[in-house]
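Supplementary Methods. Inverse-folding protocol.

Structures were first reduced to a discrete structure-token string of length 181. This string, shown here, constituted the complete conditioning input.
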């Protein structure tokens, strides 16, 4: 039986010809994965496979991306049940993704035993919702209504390293919808 997964790729720039969706899909198809699809143009792929070890999938996909397309970034895998459960629990408590409430989910490659939720207390443009252990994700609401980009991503990398990738809540919803089709 096959399982459905999302590959969330780090550092994808669609302007780079090697990072376009058709090439990214081609790498996963070349690995023998089924039902490969892309969502938006920012490194979101869904696929099905019999393999059920996310760490093995991450390594295998990242090695292929590096060897075939020269993409050094990072690959984070989440299963359909993990992402579906996150959506069903609605950790943003009904907030709507819009200019003043830009909902973000930062996925971590590894679990964080204790996320420092106070790290952004001094940033009036960033509200930390919390850390979600089941999906290994940091949940935040960014205020983009001022025209000033919050320094959130840089600070998050400085604290937790580069084995992370951030998606909007809308993108996570689109990924799950694609996994269900």
């Amino acid at each position: 039986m096959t399982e459905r997964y999302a590959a969330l790729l780090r550092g994808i720039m669609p302007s780079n010809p090697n990072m376009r969706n058709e090439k990214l899909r081609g790498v996963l198809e070349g690995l023998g994965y089924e039902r490969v699809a892309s969502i938006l143009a920012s490194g979101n792929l869904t696929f099905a496979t019999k393999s059920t070890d996310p760490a093995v999938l991450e390594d295998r996909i990242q090695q292929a991306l590096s060897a075939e397309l020269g993409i050094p970034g990072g690959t984070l895998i989440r299963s359909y049940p993990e992402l579906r459960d996150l959506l069903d629990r609605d950790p943003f408590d009904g907030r709507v993704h819009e200019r003043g409430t830009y909902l973000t989910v930062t996925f971590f490659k590894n679990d964080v035993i204790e996320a420092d939720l106070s790290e952004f207390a001094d940033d009036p443009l960033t509200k930390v919702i919390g850390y979600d252990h089941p999906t290994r994700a940091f949940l935040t609401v960014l205020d983009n209504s001022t025209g000033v980009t919050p320094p959130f991503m840089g600070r998050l990398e400085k604290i937790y390293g580069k084995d992370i990738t951030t998606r909007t809540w809308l993108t996570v919803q689109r990924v799950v919808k694609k996994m269900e089709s």
